[in-house]
Amino acid sequence: SMNPDLASERQTASFSVEKLTAWLDGGAEYTRMRRAVVEAIEGDPVFSREDQYFQSQNERYEAAVKKAVHLHKKMHEMGWTENGPESKYIHRALAGDVAFFLHRIFMRSISMLGSDKQIAKWIPLATQYKIIGSYAQTELGHGTYLQGLETTAVFDIATQEFILNTPKISAMKWWPGDMGRSATHTVVFAQLYVHGKCYGIHPFIVQIRSLQDHSLCPGITAGDIGPKMSFEHSDNGFLMLQNVHIPRENMLNKFCEVQPDGTYVRWGSQKINYFTMTSVRISVISDEVISPVMKACTIAIRYSVVRRQSKLKPGEEEAKILDYQTQQEKLLPQLAAAYAFHFISNYLQGLFDRAYREIQRKNFNMLPELHALSSGFKAIISQCCTSAVEICLRACGGHGYSLLSGLPSLYTKILASCIYEGENTILLLQTSRFLIKCFMAASTGQPVPPSVTYLAAVKPGKCPAKNKLDFLRPDIYTEAYQHMAARLVSSTAAKLQDLIQSGVKKYNAWNQCTVQLAQAAKAHCHYLTVKNFVETVEKMETQAAIQKIMKHLCDLFALHGIFSNAGLFLHDGYISGVQMDMVTASYLDLLPVIRKDAVPLVDAFDFTDKSLNSALGSYDGQVYQRLYEWAQKSPTNKQMSPAYERYLKPLLHNKLSKL
Amino acid sequence: SMNPDLASERQTASFSVEKLTAWLDGGAEYTRMRRAVVEAIEGDPVFSREDQYFQSQNERYEAAVKKAVHLHKKMHEMGWTENGPESKYIHRALAGDVAFFLHRIFMRSISMLGSDKQIAKWIPLATQYKIIGSYAQTELGHGTYLQGLETTAVFDIATQEFILNTPKISAMKWWPGDMGRSATHTVVFAQLYVHGKCYGIHPFIVQIRSLQDHSLCPGITAGDIGPKMSFEHSDNGFLMLQNVHIPRENMLNKFCEVQPDGTYVRWGSQKINYFTMTSVRISVISDEVISPVMKACTIAIRYSVVRRQSKLKPGEEEAKILDYQTQQEKLLPQLAAAYAFHFISNYLQGLFDRAYREIQRKNFNMLPELHALSSGFKAIISQCCTSAVEICLRACGGHGYSLLSGLPSLYTKILASCIYEGENTILLLQTSRFLIKCFMAASTGQPVPPSVTYLAAVKPGKCPAKNKLDFLRPDIYTEAYQHMAARLVSSTAAKLQDLIQSGVKKYNAWNQCTVQLAQAAKAHCHYLTVKNFVETVEKMETQAAIQKIMKHLCDLFALHGIFSNAGLFLHDGYISGVQMDMVTASYLDLLPVIRKDAVPLVDAFDFTDKSLNSALGSYDGQVYQRLYEWAQKSPTNKQMSPAYERYLKPLLHNKLSKL
């Protein structure tokens, strides 16, 4: 049965949830396709995540392998393909709890970096799972800075082989998924040496386990790196190489080759690699970051209208906690952010698709902008969404802290997105390097990419808002963001130049500006997110009811950002203290308005109960019943603990001395 | 052997680490006592936490019970007592990974709420562990708001018994520690009914498990609430009562009694309860919050001088990551905060001790201030320290994400401190209720407690700083904090009054101000923390070298707070934009200064390797070696996974169809 407190929230929706869902999906036909995929996956007991919160790392790994193998069959049965339109819905339905993710990266790297001959040899083997691959780049002592990798591959002309070695412990490969226990092969990144000369980092295909009995190959030491904060399902592994010989043909050689006599030849552009990283970051944003935050909002907001605590009005019954301003102020900005990031993610995908078409015509002009944006957005979105999930968790109090709420595992997993595919600080500094360059170019009248043209027009000024309603005007707040971002970029550029002119070495000057550079990069991305949200809302004119609520969310997102970063807007007086009070008033006024539609707004994300896997967040709101039922299934309740016979009984029966 | 990169950091310390340690301990004699306790605990294999990261919830519980029973013996052997001076060092050495914490709360509640006769009966039974107690207050549907609890206790004159019931599922007791699997008894909070009249919440001693065989008593349903984000060692439990009869004498009756004829009598002051909560919050701050953040700083800072990544200066070797400004700006403010909170925790303890002496003389005057401060500080310190641990974790990149770093378990545990012993938002609103009251009183010239006298003197003004060095003057920044806190309190009080005067109902007006009220409470506590840090540094004049580095940390703490909350200081122009640039410059200038002493500053916290239990943070800096050794002990490496025979082999050998 439906919890009446949750049911009543749905009766007063100001818009059609189904229409909003279809719009979020990009059209009703995609909603239908997504639901069909979800139904097929969730209807299959092998893919059940019911016991997930009770399983050990070993059990999670086994289940993930089982699911991956079953998925291979299922896809065949259903006629789904790796790159088909269903692909992203499959991923969403499985919530990433499946093995062989790195097997796909293994294949992708061969396709990108291998010659046609290599592709013809290896891709069919991998596609048919005659081998299982992984991708071994990161080392124990080396992450982001690829030039620092220490693994070596020495070419031996006599045998026409490469000899791979891990010269010291910090050079051990560390973290690659699917490598700890599953993979038979891996792509190893190593420093190439020919005739004693180092040619830098190159990729090599190395077999690590027997195809017969899965035992480790000669010279290979490999295993699992042990427990992590999440990703228990994945066998992230270590790999040590001791005089491992591989044939010359195993160096991936689309771009370069070591010829039989040891001559090193390099050709073609490597810019495309750059493009791969970009594509991975853009898919991380939508699949690994935005989806979890939408789930967290769904769970926390539904729970907040079921949970009642304390009296708001004396004499009445206890109030729904979502009726408290502080609870609204925790959750509703996160909801607005989920929408904002969904829209900017669509924008990035569009930008990527355009760039891809250009690249196929050998035009690489869009790459720097695309790289800067994908880096910066990956950083700010993963950061904001991680903190959003934490806020949702804490907003559910003690019950949020139970694994059964689903929130802890969303948090521990999303947190990793701040680290992998480029650590966020390093990514922000890449974005700011681009911004400083563009700012310099713009200052001297040179052309710059569209997203940064605003930097050319930095001018002092004042926000024209006269009352709190003016701050609900998108032109007013978008300009405030633009002004703020441009100010941060220009003032940091000025500091950098001052330092260099005063005699500080360039690399030192850069280091001394990095805190502010990172801030400038964030401001730039924040501005673009607001601008894109505004434009998205403007384009919706055919759906008035949805447009109206989206406008409220857009306002909330923008004003929450000003309220929370007030110093950045007040700094040069663009917004005055009096105006900041108007911002605060408008911001707080929006909370009860959006609160009325909060449940329909999360319903529109259209997550099934199985997909949320949360005792707090299910559609019917039967929170307490479900917590109790699920707790009873816990292994901690399966039998009386041996601790009783061993320790408690002797203690209680006062036979301690016999212990 | 010692990692040379870490060793070199210790050679240049500007002060004596040993002296700083002694000073933090409150004197060298306490350092000696602490080390003796730590040695006794860590030398005993039963207390080892070596396997902690590999254990299941069941294994953690068993180990915790084993340790608790062993500790009982050990304390006897060592001559340590429950309330002796060693007590807090024992807790620190065990890192909380031990059972029977709620057993102590059970005893404390009987001592506080029970009559002399009840104390004489129950305390010896509990002390000798003839019974094991728990404390059942929170319900599935009810937390902070005690009046909302639904469990009932109906007095039956005929049998002279109370009959306890859980009328519906939301009334089930939920979360009490030691209750899921260990406790034989518990204190149950229930609504008392006599002759059909409800007298509100009262505490009752209820037996829940047989002393003979530990089976559940008639009418009792109890068990474990299942997996949580941390606290795997603790059997947090649920409890349902169905017509459970207990004798009249089992109602704790220091303050009230139901007489045999059903007459309800109440006497004495309950203010002392209020005082208990205060004492618990103050001990949470030091034991559960500050200690973990000191550990996290130790781990992250040691790792950051061992880890090298990318080149800072072209041509040189890769740089220690602590040499990057962005890494300094992540970690050093957390280090400064750890010191700041240690000092304010001492201040709160002193205030508590004074209040305790007054209470013994029946003077309750200090209670409101103490309550407001303990609530507000518990909230801001748990919040800041939780976020500090997360920052430390992320600053260690991928390795920080491994459980073996020790950081994930510090994080998942400290996060709970934002929720238990009063959810933080609710606590902040209690503090702000006190602040508004005092502000009103002060405005009309009435006397107010010492910590809030500054509210009487709110006046507009400008910060007198003329250059960046002025912002290293404690009077300058302390006044800025004071001004800012007073402004937030007074402006929120004004908003509240305006709303009420405009006809908004009082409870609604309060709700509409809560976001700003919480902000004002934070500002007040932030100001007191800065002020107390300044005063602590001033008092150290006999130890010049330590005073100097503490002054730097104090400056960093204060300026980081202004930098990160710039809007609050810029809002009314107290600090101008130009001055904020000076703040930023002074703040960033401090980073490389403190960086030089960063390792000695964490060494002074004096955590042993066993106590850190971190592959990244040990004293010798052998990070990579230890990660590799520990990973090999993981259960994921114990044998070939059954997943191979079951799923991988048939897949690789292309026998999938037979699956």
From TrEMBL, chains A, B:
Binding-site residues, FAD: 138, 177
Subcellular location, record wording: Peroxisome
InterPro entries attached to this UniProt entry: ACOX_C_alpha1, Acyl-CoA_ox_N, Acyl-CoA_Oxase/DH_mid-dom_sf, Acyl-CoA_oxidase, Acyl-CoA_oxidase_C, AcylCo_DH-like_C, AcylCoA_DH/ox_N_sf, AcylCoA_DH/oxidase_NM_dom_sf
GO cellular component assignments: peroxisome
One Pfam family, short name: ACOX_C_alpha1
Domain Acyl-CoA oxidase C-alpha1 span(s) in chain numbering: 274-436
Family annotation (SUPFAM superfamilies): Acyl-CoA dehydrogenase C-terminal domain-like (SSF47203), Acyl-CoA dehydrogenase NM domain-like (SSF56645)
Domain Acyl-coenzyme A oxidase N-terminal: 16-132
Main location: other
Domain Acyl-CoA oxidase C-terminal: residue ranges: 474-652
Cofactor: FAD
UniProt superkingdom: Eukaryota
Gene Ontology MF term list: 3alpha,7alpha,12alpha-trihydroxy-5beta-cholestanoyl-CoA 24-hydroxylase activity; acyl-CoA oxidase activity; FAD binding; fatty acid binding
Keyword tags: FAD, Fatty acid metabolism, Flavoprotein, Lipid metabolism, Oxidoreductase, Peroxisome, Phosphoprotein
Protein's UniProt name: ACOX2 oxidase
Species of the source: Galbula dea
